[in-house]
Amino acid sequence: MIVRIMGEGQVRLDDGHLTELNKLDDELLTELEGGDQSGFRRTLVALLEAVHRLGTPLPDDSLEPSDLILPSPDATLEEVREMLSDDGLIPG
Fold this sequence. Notes:
By secondary structure, this protein is of the alpha+beta class. The protein has three helices and four strands; from the N terminus they run ββααββα.
């Protein structure tokens, strides 16, 4: 799967890592719903760090269709709310 992090580029990520990422996504959704700004920021950074840790960055000149688009690390609660689906940022 190809994951785009807004403002950073793309990362190739094995589908087997979705379970770990979904746990962070669920936590992020709870913090968004509760308006927990500090928890939201902490979990968003942890989610993006996990994508970087588990994935392989694509070259800057590569442009693959993205299967998943994640917000930048400095995204606001409101910006992330606009990106959410019923499943959160990560489907499943």
